[in-house]
């Protein structure tokens, strides 16, 4: 996949520069010492959530063969070992729900994660049928978070989700989108509806959410999940061959992935960011953004200015 290949190139370029910084995020000692020390509360329940989770679009849409599934199994094992929790899926993501359900059951880890998926259809009964299918595929009697995907028929589905929550079929409910153009609508819903989560796009270069959506979610006590943190790999392509700035060590940043992720989670309105990967090394790198120091506002500006200049 193009964005994973681009990230590998960026990481390979960083490896040469890392000698000067004495940093190696992928060494065995770094992996064994890594702990997810940063968590944030889900405002509506007080439940604590590690700030880095796992997306499944593309990476988990695979067949039944061992060659395709074994790397994903290793990702899930390592994620649980290092304290990761939230796994995000959708019926839109092909076989991702089924693969996640199969592998977490096989690994006997299906009670160790926070399972989030979505309803992505039109019509009340169609939504109910699709959500029941998601429960079966993910091998769950109850879903931790059910979201209306890309606001499709959101008013219809949100009524159903509120009923399901009161009946105990879902623990949390939310809405999602992935484009700046949807932010104003998301904000209106955050302010007017009783929801637990809102999911949207946000990155160091794509900062429309900073205008008002992030603040609105924080003010209303709505947890925030961030998608598209790497802009589908465009950020890695932008820094290809470039060294991390020396001052990145001030924020315990050991890779470009951590640079991009720490910018996001340093905004305290963000509950969890969900970079997708099928590579254990990338997973360890991503989860590493959840430990150590975070940039303050001056540091965030320095990060923005640096990326604007590449």
What does this structure look like?
Residues 52-297 form the NADP-dependent oxidoreductase domain. InterPro entries: AKR2_Oxidoreductase (IPR053135), NAD(P)_OxRdtase_dom_sf (IPR036812), NADP_OxRdtase_dom (IPR023210), TAT_signal (IPR006311). Residues 1-22 form the signal peptide. This is Aldo/keto reductase. Keywords: Signal. It is a single chain. With 310 residues, the protein is an alpha/beta fold. The protein has a single domain, classed as TIM Barrel (Alpha-Beta Barrel). Helix content is 44%, strand content 14%. It has twelve helices and ten strands. The chain has an eight-stranded parallel beta sheet. A two-stranded antiparallel ribbon has the order 1-2. Helix 8 (213-220) links the parallel strand 8 and strand 9. The longest helix is centred in the first third of the chain and has 20 residues, at 2-21. It is globular, with a radius of gyration of 19 Å. The relative contact order is 0.17. Residues 1-6 and 9-34 have low confidence and may be disordered.
